[in-house]
Structures are given as C-alpha cells and as structure tokens.
C-alpha cells in the first residue's frame, strides 16, 4: 500500500488554491461583503473562532458571523493584507498563519493595526473553507 506522507508532501496545488482563497477573503473584507465572507467559513457545528473582541469565549458559526457583522458595521472603509504568510497543508487540512494588517475608518477616525491570525482550513468538496479562526492583537 502506497500511503502519502502528509507531513513531507508540499501539496503545492492546495497551497496555491488556499492563497487564492485568502485573496478572495481579503477582497470580501475590503468590500464589506459579509455574505460572501460568511461563505468562506465552514457552516458546520465543527466551526470555531476565538478573538479579542467580546465575548471572549469560543464562538460557533452563527456567533462568529454575528460578531463579524457587528464589527464591520462600525467601519466606513477598510483595506487589509496578510503579511508573513505561511500555509502548511496536511492533505485535506491546512494551517495558515500570518499577520493581518489593516487600515480602516470608523466614525471619521483612521485606524491601523496588526493582528496575529491563525486559520485552520479544510477542503470542503473542493473548496477551501475556514474551520477555525483565532485572532489576537499585538500587545
């Protein structure tokens, strides 16, 4: 039996597909397209999210989408990027890490920041989706 080595295999096609999906995610964020953004998340009981915004507890899909909608509703505009991006693929699962950098305007005030981001992505019938998201601000 010839088994694939999920640790050593580079999964270059999957890495490219995930990179493209991240570009789509950032475009949806920057355009404020929350329905499109939600579609990039795994709508499943297996989805989880942690971040530094209240409530400071593990969120399921519905709670995460609700908190993202509340966060984005306060923004007049946003431009974002992921720096120091790393994509590690282990077959149908990938770990994505990087620094999420943003420039936004809320209530006429300019905001900038960097947030550590970790995503666990899964191949959901040929589409890479976020199954877990963890965001934390730099102190």
Give the overall pLDDT as a whole number: 94
Helix percentage range = 25-40%
Compressed to H and E, one letter per element, the order equals: HHEHEEEE
Rg over CA atoms: 16 Å
Strand arrangement, largest sheet?
1-5-4-3-2
Overall morphology:
globular
The top level CATH class name: Alpha Beta
Query: Helix tally?
Result: 3
Give the terminus-to-terminus CA distance. 50 Å
What is the level-2 CATH architecture name? Roll
Give a short account of the largest sheet.
5 strands, mixed
CATH fold assignment? Nuclear Transport Factor 2, Chain: A
- Given as residue ranges, the uncertain stretches (5+ residues, pLDDT < 50) are none
Strand content range? 35-45%
As for the number of domains, it is 1
Element layout with pairings:
Layout: H1 12-31, H2 34-38, E1 48-50, H3 61-73, E2 77-90, E3 93-106, E4 109-124, E5 127-137
Parallel strand pairs: 1-5
Antiparallel strand pairs: 2-3, 3-4, 4-5
Summarize, please.
With 139 residues, this protein is an alpha+beta fold. It has three helices and five strands; from the N terminus they run ααβαββββ.
Note down, in words, how this protein is organized.
By secondary structure, the protein is of the alpha+beta class. The protein has 3 helices and 5 strands, in the order H-H-E-H-E-E-E-E. The chain has helices at 12-31, 34-38, 61-73; strands spanning 48-50, 77-90, 93-106, 109-124, 127-137. Strand 3 (93-106) and strand 4 form a beta hairpin. The longest helix has 20 residues, at 12-31. The relative contact order is 0.19.
């Amino acid at each position: 039996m010839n088994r694939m080595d999920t640790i050593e295999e580079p999964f270059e096609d999957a890495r490219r597909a995930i990179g493209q999906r991240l570009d789509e995610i950032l475009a949806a964020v920057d355009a404020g397209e929350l329905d499109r953004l939600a579609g990039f998340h795994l709508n499943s009981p297996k989805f989880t999210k942690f971040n530094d915004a209240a409530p400071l507890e593990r969120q399921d899909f519905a709670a995460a989408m609700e908190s993202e909608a509340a966060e984005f509703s306060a923004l007049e505009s946003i431009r974002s990027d992921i720096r120091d991006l790393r994509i590690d693929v282990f077959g149908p699962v990938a770990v994505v890490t990087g620094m999420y950098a943003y420039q936004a305007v809320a209530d006429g005030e300019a905001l900038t920041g960097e947030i550590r981001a970790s995503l666990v992505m899964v191949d959901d019938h040929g589409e890479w989706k976020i199954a877990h998201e963890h965001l934390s601000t730099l102190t």
